[in-house]
C-alpha cells in the first residue's frame, strides 16, 4: 500500500471519537500528513505477538511456537485510533477481525475477548466487528479501560462488556463528528485560485460538504452526521438492554467512569483479565450445554 492510500484509509470517513481522544490523536495525524511523502517515516505498529495472543484456561500466555492446548482463549488488543484498513501506522479493523476469525475457527480455542483502550475513530471501522459477531460460533467479549465512541459501538455488540478497573476505565462519548479544513485562504495567499465545477446534472454532488466549508452546517448534519448518530444510538439501545436512557447525556456524548457505567447499564461488570477469562469459560460451557441438549 502506498503512502497516499495509507492517508486515505485514515481520513476518508466520518468519525465517532471522544473529544479527549481527538485532541490526543490530532498531533499524530498531523505528523502523518506532514511526513507522508517521506518513505523513511513510519510509526512501527506494535509487533503482532503483543497485539494478539492465546492464553490457556488458567490465563497463562501460550508461547507462539507451542501448540494451542484445548480450552484456550484468544485475546486481541484494540488500542488507539480505530481505522477500517490497516496501514503503516495503525492496526486496522480488517486485520484485528481476521485475528478474531482465526481464534473462532481454531478447535482448541473456546472463545476470545478484545482488550480495548481506545477513544474511538472512523465509523467505517465498526462494521467489520459487527459482521464478525454475526458469524462467530464462540463467545467473544470486551475488557476495556478507555472505551469511547466507535469503540463502545464495537463493545456493545460483544457478548459482554467489562471494565478493566474502577479507577481509570471510562465509557461513553456516544456521537458522530466531521472535521473539515479549508485551504482557500492559504491558496489565495500563494496565488492559487481553485475552481470546482459540477455538471448541470449534478447540482447536489458534495453539496453538504461545500456548504460546510462555507460555515453552513445544517445540510451536513441532516444528511451525514445525524443519520449516523441515530444509528449509533439505536444500536446501543438494542445491544445494551439495561441502558438507562433517563440519565442525562448517556447517548448524547457524556463519558462515565466504570462504577457509573455499571450503574447506568453501559457495562455488565467491573473485572480484570482473569475475570474476562472466567466469563468466556462460563459462556462457552453454557453454549456447549445448549448444543448437547
Give a nutshell description of this structure.
This protein has 293 residues and is an alpha/beta fold. 41% of the residues lie in helices and 16% in strands. It has a single domain (3-178, 243-292), classed as 2-enoyl-CoA Hydratase, Chain A, domain 1, CATH 3.90.226.
Sequence-ordered SSE layout with sheet pairings:
Layout: H1 3-11, E1 15-17, H2 19-35, H3 48-51, E2 52-55, E3 72-79, H4 93-105, E4 109-118, E5 120-122, H5 126-135, E6 140-148, H6 150-156, E7 161-163, E8 170-172, H7 184-189, H8 207-213, H9 218-239, E9 255-257, H10 258-263, E10 269-270, H11 273-292
Parallel strand pairs: 3-4, 4-6, 6-7, 6-8, 7-10
Antiparallel strand pairs: 1-5, 2-3, 8-9
Helix pairs in contact: 4-5, 5-6, 8-9
Task: Describe the protein.
This protein has helices at 3-11, 19-35, 48-51, 93-105, 126-135, 150-156, 184-189, 207-213, 218-239, 258-263, 273-292, and strands at 15-17, 52-55, 72-79, 109-118, 120-122, 140-148, 161-163, 170-172, 255-257, 269-270. With 293 residues, the chain is of the alpha/beta class. The strands form 2 sheets. Strands 2, 3, 4, 6, 7, 8, 9 and 10 form an 8-stranded mixed β-sheet that branches. Helix 4 (93-105) links the parallel strand 3 (72-79) and strand 4 (109-118). Helix 4 runs parallel beside helix 5, helix 5 (126-135) packs parallel to helix 6 (150-156) and helix 8 packs across helix 9 (218-239). The protein is elongated, with a radius of gyration of 21 Å. It starts with a helix and ends with a helix. The model is unreliable at 1-8 and 36-43 (pLDDT under 50).
